[in-house]
Amino acid sequence: MTVDGRARAKNHRLAEGERVRVAVEPASAGGAPDPAAAELAVVFEDEYLMVVDKPAGLVTHPAAGHTGPTLAELLAGRAAGGEHAERAGIVHRLDKDTSGLLVVARSDEAHRALQAMMRAREIRRDYLALVAGHPDAERGTIDAPLGRDRARRTVMSTRSDRTRRAITHFEVLERLPRTTLLAVRLETGRTHQIRAHLAAIGHPVCGDPQYRGARCGSRLGLERQFLHANQLMFKHPFTRELTQCESKPPVDLRVALHAARREPVSGGPDGG
């Protein structure tokens, strides 16, 4: 801000007739909207827990090297439980550029109960994934341990010195000219599990640059991986009622899927 062409302190008291000029910083052109600017969608909520629909671009909880808003911060005052105040209520996570459903605790008791259910694999988590090429089978299970890749420490793979068991189930929903829409279910919940497993069988998630899905995503106009947590189902830990939540893919994924259906058939061996 300047007053009569000169910079002034914030506490400057204006006099009659002074001319004020304020530089307004322009909004970034062409970028994706800030996911934190939109109201967070809560799909289910009671006194014990809530199920939220996380937008793409929003980190689940604070982590090293990250700046900016997180889901945990947006839920401050509504979520609770766990040993770490900065991630209160968070029971599991979604990658920053994965959208969809997360269950969140509202008390320490609920947090402990939901974590126990996660360990016992009593919470069913289903995803939609658009992948490059065409899997040979209509359905299958990928049972391959994952850990940090020996050469690329930012990605997870089976080429690791320290692995943990990881199991992913998939089923073909729709075979498209050069891609395939899959229903994916997690049995375990390792970092990047779906993305790493699908890349390991030669069918990376479209739009995922870390796991060789950039080319497919570029063709379809994707700015992030086509991975959406669309269903969450569990028996409520306190009421014992079956809790089932669903989330439709957001607009960017629906547009990409429409584009995938209209692609010309590839001459390559796998359609990718």
Question: What is this structure, in a nutshell?
Answer:
The protein is an alpha+beta fold and 272 residues long. It has one domain: Pseudouridine synthase. It is 15% helix and 27% strand.
Low-confidence stretches: 22-33
> How would you sum up the global shape?
globular
Q: Count structural domains.
A: 1
Please, what is the average pLDDT?
87
Report the top-level CATH class: Alpha Beta
Hey, roughly how much beta strand do the residues contain? Answer: 25-35%
**Biggest sheet record:** 9 strands, mixed
The CATH superfamily is known as Pseudouridine synthase
Give the end-to-end Cα distance, rounded to a whole number of Å: 54 Å
The fold-level CATH name is Pseudouridine synthase
Radius of gyration: 22 Å
Order of helices and strands: EEEEEHEHEEEEEEHHEEH
Number of strands: 14
Task: Determine the number of helices (DSSP H or I, runs of at least 4 residues).
Answer: 5
Instruction: Kindly state the percentage of residues in helix.
Output: 10-25%
Structural class: alpha+beta
Looking at the overall shape, the CATH architecture is: 2-Layer Sandwich
